[in-house]
Design brief:
5 strands; globular; 145 residues
Length: 145
C-alpha cells in the first residue's frame, strides 16, 4: 500500500503535460479537446489552502496564474477566461485557467456542469512547445527567483 507522497497523485505524477516549472509550482496543460488551452497552476508542495501559504508565496502563485491567463488569452482568443481554485481530492493548492467560448459545450455553465450543446470546432491550434515558450517568456522573472 502506498502512503504519504507516494499515494499523492500530484506528487507521483505531474498531472498533465508540464509547460513550465519552477521549484515552487508548475503549469500543466489539461488534455481536453473541448477546451484547448485549459491549464492548471499547481503548487508543488502539500499545501491545502491559499491561506496556508505565506503572503509572498500567495503573491507569487497568483502572479503565475495571471501570467498563464494572459498567455492563454493571447494564444487562444477566448471570449472569457474562468479561474477556479477548488481541489477537494488533492493536497495541493491549484488553480484552473480555462478558456471559454460562447459556443463551447457548456457555456454559460461551468465546464463541469451540464453540457448545453455539442462542442464547436475552429479553436486555435496551439502546440505545447508554443505554449511552453510563451510561458517561459512571461514567467522568466519568477523562474530566476
Amino acid at each position: 500500500m502506498l502512503t504519504g507522497k507516494q499515494a499523492c497523485e500530484l506528487c507521483a505524477n505531474d498531472g498533465g503535460v508540464v509547460l513550465w516549472r519552477s521549484a515552487l509550482c508548475r503549469v500543466i496543460r489539461v488534455d481536453d479537446p473541448d477546451y484547448p488551452g485549459f491549464c492548471r497552476v499547481v503548487w508543488n508542495d502539500h499545501v491545502r489552502e491559499m491561506s496556508d501559504l505565506d503572503a509572498a508565496h500567495r503573491a507569487l502563485l497568483m502572479q503565475v496564474v495571471f501570467a498563464v491567463e494572459t498567455e492563454v488569452r493571447r494564444l487562444f482568443l477566448p471570449d472569457k477566461i474562468n479561474l477556479a481554485s477548488f481541489g477537494n481530492m488533492v493536497s495541493h493548492v491549484h488553480w484552473h485557467v480555462i478558456p471559454r467560448w460562447r459556443d463551447d459545450r457548456h457555456f454559460p455553465e461551468p465546464i463541469w456542469g451540464k453540457a448545453q450543446r455539442h462542442g464547436a470546432g475552429g479553436r486555435p491550434a496551439v502546440g505545447d512547445a508554443v505554449m511552453s515558450q510563451a510561458l517561459a517568456g512571461a514567467l522568466a522573472d519568477i523562474e530566476r527567483g
